[in-house]
Every structure is written in structure tokens, then in C-alpha cells.
Amino acid sequence: MVELLFLLLPVAAGYGYIMGKNSARSKAHEQNRQITSEYSKGLKFLLDREEDQGLEHLINLLEVSADSVEHYLTLAIMFRRRGEFDRAIKIHKLLLEQANLNSDTTTSILIELAQDYIMAGLLDCAEEHLLNLVERLNAKAIELLFDLYLQTKEWQKGISLYEKNGSLFSKHKLKVAVANFYCEQSILIEKPKLMRKVLGLESGVVRPLFELGKAAFLREDHVKAISYWRDLLMQTPNYTPLFLDDLEACYKNLGLCDQFETLLEQEVENGGVLIKIKYCRILVNNSRSSDAVKLLTKSLKKQPNIRGFSFLLEMITSQNQEIKIVIEQINELVQSYIATKTEFQCTQCGFSSHTLYWSCPSCKHWETIIPSRGLDGF
């Protein structure tokens, strides 16, 4: 009898193990069934257009199961887009309380939480989170901080961030932003020399050269103004309309009109219509009106432009007094048309304006608004 009991003990133990395992599986299955049921309830609320109840129900589920982090991140983004920042913040905070989140997931949640704070106007909270992420060498946090400092116009904070973490500023977009932060700060504290620090930061950056030329021009240092603006004209001719008249004035004040003419002659082939018009004026003043008409006519055939056409009409009028009145009337109509067109357009988002903005009010990109090109442009 005793031997039988010893034989039955392993069987009993095995049976208990199997039953226990089945019981655990049953509990897990029941828990999953309950969670699925709760999800279904939340979705039903949404489908029945009871959005507040449905969204609140899904938030509460987060405390039951954190297995579907991506789903909750998507839900939080939806809240943020709806302007319900408190709910988005609540979801992200609850996610951060969950155990076993890997480093990348935690970073993603912190980035999203910082964006919640920015949209909600809680800029100090956003800055605190983003600075912590910068310490972890997160480049995305740098971009968000620069957007934040653009919003608050705290240029020096952005400059300090760059000087401490220069290795994280590898993107062209960020380097252009840094250059413009230096420009804004130098204008604020009235120290143009500060802009020289970023002259070689990134190829194609426009504003430091333009602002340094402008500052030199205002203090009547025509030699330096010519140096900066000539470099800018050759580097990025799209921005020539901003300073071409003042550049010409610099050459005139120094008695170097011939050098200005040579510069235009070098750039007239590939430059915009404004350079062509300026060069044609010089030809007219040098009694070479027919050459000017030929040059501009040839250019307009290749690339039609309403401003060039207007100046062509002006030259034809000066050569033929018999049709002067008719041509002047036509030119008045052309000028009226030109007046309705915006002078500047963003190459990133298409925003257009009569005023130059170094940071696009629409997409917030730096130096993407340029003088208009094409039929109505410069």
C-alpha cells in the first residue's frame, strides 16, 4: 500500500502541474477576451459617433494593457490634432509609466510628449524634456528646440545649444537655422560682427552675407558692402533683387561704374531678368539702345517674363515717338498686372507674400522664401 502511494505521488504532481498550467492559460485567455471586449466597446462608441465616451474608454484601457504602444501613440496624435492636448499628454505620461519599454520607444514617447507641451503652450515643460533628450544626443530634439526658440525668439539659447552640441547639427536645414539665429541675435544686440562666425558654416547660406553687406552699406563702408554682396550675387543670384540697386550705388560712390558694368556683363547670361534690365539700362545710357533691345528680345523669347516685357516696351517707346502714346497705355496695363503679383514665394510650401520673411510663416523653414521667378518674377 505504501509502495502504491509512492507510485501515485509523481502522477499526482504531474496532474497538478498540468491543471495549474491549463488554469493559467484559461486566466490569460479570459483576460485577453476581456481586453478585446473592452476594445470593441471603445470602437463601438466611436462608430456610434459618441467620440468623447469612446476615446475616454480607450484611454482607461491603457492601465489594463500596454502591449500596443504604437496604437496608443497613434491615438495620442489624433487627440493632439483635435486640439485635446490634455488627453494626448495623459496617454504619453501613462505610456512612460509602463515597464519594459525599450530605449527607442521611450525616446519616441518623450519626443511626442514634448510636442504635446509645445502645442499646448507649455513651453517650459517642452524645453525641459527636449534638453534632457539632447543630453542623450537626440538630433530630433535639437530640431524641436530650434522651432521652440524661433517661436519665443530666444536666439541666444539656440546659439548656445549649437556651440555645446555642434556634432548634432549635421543637417543642412539646421545649419541654415543656426546661421539665421546668429543674424537675429546680432541685429538684436547691434553687433554685426557676430554674423561673421557663420560665414563658412554651410555652403549656400544667404542671410549672413546679405546682412553684413547691408550693415556695411548703412555705415557707408562701400568697399565691404561690395565684397559681401558680390559674393552673394555669384553664390545665390536668386536673391539679387534684394540688393542690386544698393550695390550699384556702392560702385557709383567709389567711382567704379565700369567695374559694375563688367560684373553685370559676366552675370547677364545666367542671371535673372532684373540683372538683364539693369544691364540694358547701362547699354541705353551708353547710346547702345539697339543692342539692349536685341539682348532683351532674345532673352524673352527663351524665357518670357512680364517685367522684362514691360522694360522692352519702355525702350521701344523711347525709340519711336509715333507710337509712344499707344505703347505707354499698354505698359500701364502691364504695370497694373505686375502690381497684383507677390514678389516673394516659399520654395518649400508655396507661401507667397509682398514681404521677405527669412523664416517662412507657414512651414517655418529658414531661407526658403526667395524673390519670385518665372513669368511674373525677377
UniProtKB/TrEMBL annotation:
Highest taxon of the lineage: Bacteria
A GO term, aspect molecular function: metal ion binding
SUPFAM superfamilies listed in its UniProt record: TPR-like
LapB rubredoxin metal binding domain residues: 344-371
UniProt key word Metal-binding: yes
Pfam families the record matches: Zn_ribbon_LapB
Membrane-crossing residue ranges in chain numbering: none
Keyword line: Metal-binding
Signal peptide stretch: none
Record's keyword annotation contains Metal-binding: yes
The protein's name: Lipopolysaccharide biosynthesis regulator YciM, contains six TPR domains and a predicted metal-binding C-terminal domain
Originating species: Pseudoalteromonas denitrificans DSM 6059
